[in-house]
Amino acid sequence: MPDSLLQLGRIIGVHGLNGTIQIHSDTRPAIGIAGYSRWWVGAHAMAAKPVRVCRCWAHGKRILAQLEGVAHIEAAEALRGQLIFIQRTQVPVGEDEYLWQDLVGCAVVDVELGPIGRVVALTDYGAQDILIVRGDAHSVREGEWMIPFTSQIIRDVDLKTAQITVALPEGMDACFTPN
């Protein structure tokens, strides 16, 4: 089951006395997590158990939820720090679309430079997603790259071989931090 689960967020606290939990959502927009009526909750994917979401809503800048079987503050407090997952099949992925979770760990190879590292994280600064790529002793340079995930730079994503081919434009050295 763990390979079929995608992490969507985590439980960061409680709200009130009736078992309402506060969520940190990894979805964009954050309230997107409310679109799923069944979550898997646990310390990690192997320990996650299914739970029905009775209600999930935005409250100011917070995301709150009520889960079936969690009706008191004590039960909600016991969930603090737990991760929230959904089944991968619940997320439609179109052609040329990728889940961030699938890109982490992929080798990144530049068409001219060769191996530049592995994706360690992704982030979003608004204009586009950014690959955080860490180069090691087997890479052209040791350090960290911030590579925009755009069609001008990304040439190919092969999830079967876990490799992303890029064509870094001139001036990309500004997006590199040496070790």
Note down, in words, how this protein is organized.
It is a single chain. The protein is 5% helix and 47% strand. By secondary structure, the protein is mainly β. The chain is elongated.
Blueprint (SSEs and pairs):
Elements: E1 5-15, E2 20-25, E3 38-42, E4 49-59, E5 62-67, H1 73-77, E6 83-87, H2 100-103, E7 107-110, E8 114-124, E9 129-135, E10 143-148, E11 154-158, E12 163-166, E13 176-178
Parallel strand pairs: 7-12
Antiparallel strand pairs: 1-2, 1-6, 2-5, 3-4, 3-6, 4-5, 7-8, 8-9, 9-10, 10-13, 11-12
What characteristics describe this protein?
single chain, 179 residues, mainly beta, Elongation Factor Tu (Ef-tu), domain 3, SH3 type barrels, 2 domains, seven-stranded mixed β-sheet, 5% helix
Summarize the structure.
Helices cover 5% and strands 47% of the residues.
- Domains counted in the coordinates: how many? 2
Mean pLDDT across all amino acids? 93
Residues in helices, as a percent range:
under 10%
Number of strands: 13
Instruction: Summarize the main sheet.
Output: 7 strands, mixed
Question: What Rg do the Cα atoms give?
Answer: 19 Å
User: What would the principal axes of the Cα set say about the shape?
Assistant: elongated
- CATH architecture tag of the largest domain: Beta Barrel
**Strand percent estimate:** over 45%
Oligomer designation: single chain
